[in-house]
Amino acid sequence: MAAGIMNRGAVLRAALALMVAGFALAAGLPAQAQDKFIVMASTTSTEQSGLFAHLLPAFKKATGIDVRVVALGTGQALDMGRRGDADVLFVHDQAAEEKFVADGFGLKRSPVMYNDFVVVGPKTDPAGLKGNDVVEALKKLASSKETFVSRGDKSGTHAAELRYWNAAGIDPPTGKVAGYKECGCGMGPALNMAASMNAYVLADRGTWLSFKNRAELAILVEGDKRLFNQYGVIVVSPAKYPHVKDHLAQAFADWVLSADGQATIASYRIGGEQLFFPNAEKR
Amino acid sequence: MNCQPTGASPPLVRLRELSVHFGAVQALRNVSLDVRRGDFIALVGANGSGKTTLLRALHGMLRHQGSRELADASLVQAMVFQRPFVMRLSVVNNLRLALWLARVPRAEWAGRAALALRRVGMAELGERPARALSGGQQQRLALARAWAIQPQILFLDEPTASLDPSAKKDVEALLAGFAADGMTMVMSTHNLGQAKRLARRVVYLDQGEIQRDLPTEAFFGERGSARIDQFLKGEMAWQLES
Amino acid sequence: MSAFAESGRTAVDLIVHADPVLLHTVGLSLSVSGTATLLAAGLGLALGAWLAVARFPGHRLAALVLNTLLALPSVVVGLVVYLLLSRSGPLGSWGILFTPTAMVVAQTILVLPVVAALTRQLVGDSLRDGGDQLRSMGAGPLSCALLMLVHDRWAVLTVLIAAFGRAIAEVGAVMVVGGNIDGITRVMTTSIALETSKGDLPLAMALGIVLLAVVGVVNIGIGMTQRGHGSALAGVR
């Protein structure tokens, strides 16, 4: 703290130096401009299944394009596309996806793959749901007093859940099902809640297979065709937001629908089990 | 400081009909005062009489009605306060700060700082943290700070009121020394003995007005005003210290 | 209790094995929050010092607003910055959404009130003690305030440490404007949130312990710069 501080100008210079140091640090942060990359909006359940860690490096190898995944719920992912902040969408809610394209936000929706949902619950199955009919299971659940955890977050999983309740004639389930609890959260937290409350929950198989906190839970309902969860890929339209990288995004869509991409999807396993089943339309 | 003949040159500071308000309270009422070169004025009075306000008004720190004129627009002033504020820097850096604020050329800093510290008897304390000094030493640092900029007029607001007796003696000796060097000084004090010892002129304030403005012997020899008498007696009984 | 023990063990494991992904994540946390703190310091110290002496009509209101902004939820800052930087927003052409730069912007906004409000209080308090005397020595009002920053430099450092803590510990803003993209905008706090949402609670806690350990090391480093000055209290009256 010598007389150096005393210089009138030095006081101002010190403040400026702080800011310059700040900017210098900022410049050292990962550069973005040089590499080719796109932003993909997808869902938390898909990312957490680990598929992207398997799929995207193969895409980068084939095309040199980086894919940066922002994982949200399906509803938020579509909203992101509507704002032009994503270049490509990879979600699983066909109705919402088709509306997205119809509204002019997306170029085209193409089916890519499907995985399935399972109903998970306490091993002892107090509501007696076990079987392969999801609609019957939900009816039995409604008439019991058992707790059911719903994601309640506009996600593809949540949308599917509501469709099953609808098919069971219980619409909306809030208020009609005694033990219905909405957490407004992702798949992981929902499973955590179910595990700690010993409750039932609808989950995608991928997240369930990776879920480590199972407590007394087990798969009770599976194999119902209605439980199949269809994924679609959509390139976001540059019409509204010219900065959307539609060419690079199209390259991704083309690749993931190609024989190469489809094979890569099929080769992804958890514990030896295949999670995702490619079903792109033959071109 | 140079010795200047008094009386011939214009007053360093001249107050005419000066009033100061703090909100609804009138602290100074139509005060007129000349501070002449070479003066050593003691401002005395009871608490709340306006001593400190008058001192600050002379220094130019307060908004006021009435007039305040300086002999010279570039008059160099310094003020020493009852509780000195020293920065969390070394002793010598505190001096450098004062020199910088007074716009003294950098080249003169080293010399002036060394001389100032020697003048107040703290030559070997230059590198000490100023906050680590005793109360008396901090006040001497404040005096050094003032002395270093070679002020034409030095204001002191109860400079020894917070000091223990031995520190008080040291500071009084320094003030007497400054006065002997010819520095013009205006000092407010509670301590009438101190006023008698150091000042050549006493200004007595009561309720914001100057009641008496006399050379020291005249002030202390005067009788005739019951109020002043009471003040002197009341104060002197327990304030007068040797 | 075993969950805590497991987390502790995992934390030590992580640190010892210095996994490259973890190192990158820690490095990103430090650089994003460190940069934000420096930027907020440059702006906030000046703003706080100025507000301590400013007397313009409404200066009290400005101080009140600043104190209220101390309670800015990090998610709210994230949303505001997101909407500004979105391609559908006014600054979309900058193209910095979902990059560390956006995270720095958001965190700077978040901690700026911390620096400015606390500095204003510090400087104001010191000015009450010695402002008069500095003025009498010839300092203008703003110079007095800046001198008090020098006078109170250790307290100012603590303010900056607090600001850094607020930045590196927050998750709402960086999650929204960064998108938690693996390898690009994933920092310690968003990693913890991710592991929590995957149900891997011991790993989430272990990452939390690692984060605290890293900040602890930073503070030790800062503390060592104080050793040359001994205890700030020695001999103070």
Please, could you describe this protein's structure?
The complex is a heterotrimer of chains A (about 280), B (about 240) and C (about 240). Chain A has helices spanning about 10-30, 45-50, 50-65, 75-80, 95-100, 135-145, 155-165, 185-195, 205-210, 245-255, 260-265; strands spanning about 35-45, 65-70, 90, 105-120, 150, 180, 200-205, 215-220, 230-235, 270, 275, 275-280. With about 280 residues, chain A is an alpha/beta fold. Chain A has two domains: about 35-115 and about 230-280, Periplasmic binding protein-like II (D-Maltodextrin-Binding Protein, domain 2, 3-Layer(aba) Sandwich), CATH 3.40.190.10; about 115-225, Periplasmic binding protein-like II (D-Maltodextrin-Binding Protein, domain 2). Chain B has a single domain (about 15-240), classed as P-loop containing nucleotide triphosphate hydrolases (Rossmann fold, 3-Layer(aba) Sandwich). Chain B has eight helices and nine strands. Chain C is mostly helical. In chain C, helix 5 (about 100-135) runs antiparallel to helix 7. The chains are: A alpha/beta (about 280), B alpha/beta (about 240), C mainly alpha (about 240).
Main sheet overview of chain C: none
CATH topology term of the largest domain in chain A = D-Maltodextrin-Binding Protein, domain 2
- Based on the structure given, which CATH architecture of chain C is correct? Orthogonal Bundle
Given as residue ranges, the uncertain stretches of chain C (5+ residues, pLDDT < 50) are: 230-237
Overall 3D shape of chain A: globular
- CATH architecture of the largest domain in chain A, by name, is 3-Layer(aba) Sandwich
What class do helices, strands and sheet pairing of chain C give? mainly alpha
Order of helices and strands of chain A: HEHHEHEHEHEHEHEHEEHHEEE
Order of helices and strands of chain C: HHHHHHHHHH
Strand content of chain C: under 5%
Task: Say how many strands of chain C there are.
Answer: 0
Task: Using brief descriptors, characterize the structure shown.
heterotrimer; B: 242 residues; alpha/beta; Rossmann fold; six-stranded mixed β-sheet; three-stranded antiparallel β-sheet; C: 237 residues; mainly alpha; MetI-like fold; 10 helices; 77% helix; disordered C terminus
What's the arrangement of secondary structure elements?
The complex is a heterotrimer of chains A (283), B (242) and C (237).
Chain A: H1 8-28, E1 37-43, H2 44-48, H3 51-63, E2 66-72, H4 74-82, E3 88-91, H5 94-102, E4 106-122, H6 134-143, E5 148-150, H7 156-167, E6 180-182, H8 187-197, E7 200-204, H9 205-210, E8 217-221, E9 228-236, H10 246-257, H11 259-266, E10 269-270, E11 273-274, E12 277-278
Parallel strand pairs in A: 1-2, 1-3, 5-6, 5-7
Antiparallel strand pairs in A: 3-9, 4-7, 4-8, 4-9, 4-12, 10-11
Chain B: E1 13-22, E2 25-35, E3 40-44, H1 51-59, E4 65-70, E5 77-80, H2 91-101, H3 109-119, H4 135-148, E6 153-157, H5 165-180, E7 184-188, H6 192-198, E8 201-206, E9 209-215, H7 216-221, H8 226-239
Parallel strand pairs in B: 3-7, 3-8, 5-6, 6-7
Antiparallel strand pairs in B: 1-2, 1-4, 8-9
Helix pairs in contact in B: 2-3, 2-4, 3-4, 4-5
Chain C: H1 2-17, H2 20-53, H3 59-69, H4 74-85, H5 100-136, H6 141-151, H7 153-169, H8 172-178, H9 188-197, H10 201-227
Helix pairs in contact in C: 1-10, 2-5, 2-6, 2-7, 3-5, 4-5, 4-8, 5-6, 5-7, 5-8, 7-10, 9-10
